[in-house]
């Protein structure tokens, strides 16, 4: 097995079981490994630290599959089957507990499978294999998923930007089982949603907001709700079904709004208000017309992929929260989110506080929010905590 030796003093994160080794930490490589090939990682003195996947095109040069004593065995099909089994075991009973047939089954590094994300929508599994190591071991992981879940289909949506940074081309299509239907219907409690596994964002739906959708729905009865960056209508449809007085969906994407309309009809709801346009501009137009809402939901797309983009992202978060707060009627509520991993919770909270001061509103936090429990996090990998939010009372 090819050996990757680290520079002196650069082994501490690996000893603490962090799975990423950046290019600057690598001292020597015994022979040039192939993309995704399993390599032995050692410290400067040659002591073994773990086994990982080599990624020559990425700044993250190695992603660790196994550490310490775990690295003594072979990384064969049995290894990956065991990792899949462990990921499924962590989620045992979650579908029943959360009353849903849609769950994240594998959450990449947090489940010991860097670069591998798998969501279940009914009988369809949708996977993303975003790294060289994930791509190289894809067949073994897919075989294990199909055997252990009883799903009818495993469909690939490896069309994420991360693959390009790994030197990989996008890959979309059926991996195993039957060709899935064009749209899969799932449920979250009483709410039903259509999921487009072929063309939808990410794997088709934002399962990470499941519990936050329920929180918003519980607060929506009798209220006028603004669902900004609505995508396929998740927050607004749940709010309307829970008894919201009125719901306004705003998004730039016409296809997403079309899906939001279908989701509204799927739940037997009357037509809501759907506005296609730039959300910043539309919220400014609401402000200028003195339009207000009792509950405002701000769930924008990722504004920062890396810390280098954080300053620009923070300006965007402040602007959208300033606009949102100006639209909340006195005594109303704001649910605001950031899915940018480069923005930590304390910084996001500070930005919302600055927006509140500039808006002249007194804001009290009722709950801090995060990704749904099936999007498990590892204490060894803090980067896995990416979705943070605040549910606030606004005076």
Provide an overview of this structure.
With 395 residues, the protein is α/β, with parallel strands linked by helices. It folds into three domains: 3-72, PUA domain (Archaeosine Trna-guanine Transglycosylase, Chain: A, domain 4); 77-177, Transcription Regulator spoIIAA, CATH 3.30.750.80; 206-394, Vaccinia Virus protein VP39 (Rossmann fold), CATH 3.40.50.150. It contains twelve helices and 20 strands. Strands 16-15-14-17-18-20-19 form a seven-stranded mixed sheet, with helices on both faces. The protein has a six-stranded mixed sheet with strand order 2-6-5-4-1-3. The chain has a five-stranded mixed sheet with strand order 7-8-9-10-11. The protein is globular and about 65 Å long. The model has no long low-confidence stretch (mean pLDDT 95).
